[in-house]
Amino acid sequence: MYTETVTYTDYNGSERTESFSFNLTKAEVYDTEMSYEGGYKGYLQKIVDAKDMSALVKVFKELLMKTYGERSSDGRRFIKSPELSKAFSETEAFSTIYIKLATDADAAAKFISGTFQSFLSHRTRRQFRLRKCNCLKAFLSHNAIHYCSRVRAV
């Protein structure tokens, strides 16, 4: 599970600080992996190889919507629904997190690693963050001029 704490100004002009949680269960990660020819890793790698920034930011938006949810009070469930995701997407907090993922390679790598953590070992998550972060930094910061072709995405 990945939690992001965001300070933002709501539509009433009030400053708010809230924490938002994102998660994929092992079953959801498996479904995601199997939904793409060549797996999700292959899908992400194609986007990075093609240096397709519009596709990359679309992935971040889809992941935000797919992974957003709220923990049940007893901690047994992570509740997700289209209604919850839509309500979240209508906040400035969503905009803040979305833009951060699209422009900050470190944040993007942490988000992906955190949401896929139920499926990845600690060592794999650490390796992913290091490799993916270096690639995303080049991709986002330098319009992919210094792209690292060795990266393996989740």
Placed side by side, the strands forming the largest sheet appear as 1-2-3-4
Order of helices and strands: EEHHHEEHHHH
Number of domain modules: 1
Mean of pLDDT = 79
Helix content: 55-70%
How many distinct beta strands?
4
Describe the largest sheet.
4 strands, antiparallel
Beta-strand fraction estimate: 5-15%
Number of helices: 7
Give the N-terminus to C-terminus distance in angstroms.
15 Å
What's the alpha carbon Rg, rounded to whole Å? 16 Å
Structural class: alpha+beta
Summarize the structure in words.
The chain is α+β, with helices and mostly antiparallel strands and 154 residues long. The protein is globular and about 45 Å long. It is built from seven helices and four strands, in the order ββαααββαααα. It has one domain. A hairpin with a 6-residue loop joins strand 3 and strand 4 (78-79). Helix content is 56%, strand content 14%. It has helices at 26-34, 39-50, 53-67, 82-89, 92-103, 105-115, 122-141; strands spanning 2-9, 15-22, 68-71, 78-79.
List keywords for this structure.
alpha+beta; disordered C terminus; 7 helices; 4 strands; 154 residues
Write a compact overview of the structure shown.
56% of the residues lie in helices and 14% in strands. It is α+β, with helices and mostly antiparallel strands and 154 residues long. α3 packs across α4, α5 crosses α6 (105-115) and α6 runs antiparallel to α7 (122-141).
Question: What is this structure's SSE topology?
Answer:
Elements: E1 2-9, E2 15-22, H1 26-34, H2 39-50, H3 53-67, E3 68-71, E4 78-79, H4 82-89, H5 92-103, H6 105-115, H7 122-141
Helix pairs in contact: 3-4, 3-5, 5-6, 6-7
